[in-house]
Design a protein that fits this description.
By secondary structure, this protein is an alpha/beta fold. Helices cover about 25% and strands about 25% of the residues. It has seven helices and 13 strands. The strands form two sheets. Strands 1, 2, 3, 4, 11, 12 and 13 form a seven-stranded mixed sheet that branches. α6 links the parallel β7 and β8. The longest helix has 19 residues. The radius of gyration is 17 Å and the shape is globular.
């Protein structure tokens, strides 16, 4: 089964580029299932029902999120009602949504788990222990393919969780830092891995944000509001080819630059 994981979609510019690019990318690569991180897909640097529906309409089968998922109140009921969008399972004191979903593709069942890194975060419970608990759930255990979006800041934490889950899940990928890493691989026990998928957004930016805003904060200490910037985009992600045993047999970085 060919799984395409797409990095954080940033703002309206990222959504527009995803709409232009994703359908053809799926056709060209024979994609069976597409997982898109949508936590920054709204212009407010959050996810809303309208931005999520746009992602579904252009080819996302499952939407994962991250630390910004509860920024907009209008998404709360949507997270409860929609089975194919998930929030981090280890979000402490979380009242809305769910941390995983299981999709029956017809060929097999696929479980998609969303976790939040605990390093540099006060909102996350222990992701290692949370993963253990989830993998004991009957519907996840019975799924042949198990995928984990680990939305985390620290590279070391991402790699540690991947090795911890090696052989227990089919693939682990990182999101959140918006910069695609070049360490895609198959771990010793058959789990596909990449530290960060990257993003879908304006290429000449600071993670999709206007560089002037970021410079003003870091250099001058100004509390300016971050704003997205228009321009030529990049779509970043990773392709995982997973066999009937649930092991990854091939992994490839995907990066599409707007000419």
């Amino acid at each position: 089964m060919r799984i395409l994981a797409i990095g954080d979609v940033v703002g309206e510019n990222g959504c527009r580029f995803l709409a232009r690019t994703l359908p053809g990318l799926k056709r060209e690569n024979g994609i069976d299932l597409c997982v898109v991180n949508g936590e920054n897909s709204d212009k407010s640097n959050a996810v809303t029902p309208s931005s999520a529906e746009l992602l579904f309409s252009v080819g996302a089968d499952i939407i994962t999120t991250g630390n910004h998922v509860f920024r907009r109140k209008e998404v709360y009921d949507y997270l409860d009602e929609k089975r194919d969008i998930v929030r981090p399972a280890n979000f402490e004191s979380c009242q809305y949504g769910k941390g995983y979903t299981v999709l029956d593709t017809g060929r097999c069942c696929v479980a998609v788990i969303n976790l939040l890194g605990a390093a540099y975060s006060n909102d996350a419970g222990n992701p290692f222990l949370c993963a253990d608990e989830l993998l004991e759930k009957e519907d996840i255990r019975s799924a042949k393919i198990k995928l984990v979006d680990f939305h985390a800041e620290a590279t070391g934490e991402k790699r540690a969780l991947a090795f911890y889950l090696d052989g227990r899940v089919s693939a682990v990928w990182g999101t959140h830092t918006h910069v695609q890493t070049a360490d895609e691989c198959i771990l010793p026990k058959g789990t596909g891995y990449i530290t960060d998928l990257g993003m879908v957004g304006t290429f000449y930016s600071c993670l999709g944000v206007d560089p002037a805003c970021v410079i003003a904060r870091l250099k001058d200490g100004e509390q300016v509001k971050f704003s997205h910037i228009d321009g030529k985009c990049v779509l970043s992600g990773c392709l995982f080819d997973i066999d009937e045993s649930g092991k990854t047999r091939f992994v490839e970085r995907i990066a599409v630059r707007e000419p």
